[in-house]
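hi got a favour to ask and not much time before my train. below you get a single protein, a line of residues and a line of whole numbers that encode the local backbone shape. could you go over both lines and see whether the tokens make sense for that sequence. a few lines back from you is plenty, here it is:
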Amino acid sequence: MSQTTSTRAAIPVVSHTVRGACPHDCPDTCALRITVENGRVVRVAGDPDHPPTHGALCTKVSRYAERTYHPERVLTPLKRVGPKGAGQFVPVSWDEALDDIAARLKSIAARDPQAILPYSYAGTMGMLQSESMDRRFFHKLGASLLDRTICSNAGGEALALTYGAKVGMHLEDYAAAKLILIWGSNSIASNLHFWTFAQQAKRNGARLVCIDPRRTETADKCHQHIALLPGSDGALALGLMHQLITLGALDQDYIARHVDGFEALRERALAWPPERAARVCGIEPQVIVELAREYAAAKPAAIRLNYGMQRTHGGGNAVRLVAMLPCLTGAWRQRGGGLLLSASGWFRAFRNDAALQRPDLLGERRPRTINMSTIGDDLLREASPEFGPKVEALVVYNTNPVAVAPDSAKVVAGFARDDLFTVVLEHFLTDTADFADYVLPATTQLEHRDVHTTYGHTYVVANDPAIAPVGQARPNTQVFRDLAARMGFTEACFADTDEQLAAQALRGVDLAALREHGWVKLPLPEVPFADGGFVTPNGKVQVCPPGFSAPDHVVPYESAQSAPDLAQRFPLAMISPPARNFLNSSFVNVKSLRDIEGEPLLEIHPDDAAARGLTDGAVVRVHNARGSHHCKARVSTRARPGVVHGLGVWWRKFGVDGTNVNELTSQRLTDIGRAPTFYDCLVEVSAQ
């Protein structure tokens, strides 16, 4: 921390800088420098010394102070006084709110604690505010466990099956690549700092290829855009493998020493000539032929895979197939070659999750697990031997499920139950908070301590509180300490301070250096898999892990190929990628960002619009058997024929008819990882 004092118009100004970390669900996990003057944050900037951040922030986080000082921020506990969903509340004291919440939870737990469900995700990615005192509280209580699958589980589990963990290239090494396949990622919007290294590579002569159904801002800046159909990524990977085999472009030595089960993969790939793969992908066979040649010739060649492509029925299998590509060509041998989907597995040896989360507090109890992606159905289930008790209480933090969970008509119906007791820890009255019995004011990243591991690079980043909490806001950790005391939990771990939690969170990391510099790089090999050494039991990439049978499907649940009758009624495939100026549903209520983004839109190709008599800017009805959603049409060649884009995730309350695109998405799950199939969705579009 640095400090200076100056005088402006005879008023002394005390200024200092605090080190922080971006808390949001983004691979970049930027290191921050926060300028505070007289107790108020006046600037949030990137740390120029942190190699991944190098001083730059996205538009969203550079305006983070606007979020903290937002006039609509919840700054006192609120108790519902109107019907659920109406957002009608009165202020109450912390003591009144916590006493009542604890009494309600005690009453339910006396019957069956599994009737209580915590529901959280990545509104903050910090180890303290997202997975420490809260986990201790619910483990001691014996509440239902939550399967946190909603974003990345299909790809994450698939990568772990293949490489042994969620591991990959160092971010900075993309600057050394000669070919980069940016696969399922709008990097300019959602992985800005990777994009800066890709641009370095481009300036040095590298070729950039974007593989994405949508012509994104990233695709605009690449040398080539391959607009494949949603959910066909696995077919493209198999088509590329077919060509690598027939071209004789395999690194046989690398395969022999570091790939387990290649013959089974070879047989499968040879059944996918370019013509077959191209039919599934909706592209020309020559595109696959030429891309395979380029990938084989480029030394080194890199793939930046992102989670957009795993949100379909075959998404996990597709990730496994793409992850095989650098193993077949030996791209891992060189710096700048290989693949990155997630780097979070590198932190596994350094995270002390058991000490932080204390699963031992469960004792001999083994509560049921509920998948967060099926919350719409699960809140509407009655008690049964298969399901267990009906969900009677829900504690929601770090997420906004009414906006972001699939099949949202059912989610809304579940949250609207009069017999469901709901507590929401939040910054704002989100769509979910509107249904709460109590809303508890949470601190922002500028007001609490945290420690962050990452999934886009290999640095631990620390966050110091820059200011005192605004209003009556409290950190999540403090809320669960307070509830634990009222529940009568006497274990010493419930008295741990945030400083003590931070010290417990990591092992093998120089905590003094982390506190001094704000970040520490993990001690990892410079070229991680140059000579194999994957994180699997035998150190080899696994084509067919023990007990795993690779599915053959490489098309979505909902497509003309897999469901022709359904496609007759709903002929357009819809994906719902994030709007550039939001992060999932975060920042939607920040007016300056919402003004940039405009309004909820559906991008539709001119041919599809003309066939339906639709014009640019007209309000249209997007519908399928699950529901309908009204928004404005944007007629644009960013959409390929047959595919529409419902840019999200807008809060429902900002929608034309009080809905968003998740009115149309389903609760079906992926082939691997029990994750949602957001981008596996057929719709029709018509005039309002």
Observations:
- The chain has 25 helices and 28 strands.
- The longest helix spans residues 94-111.
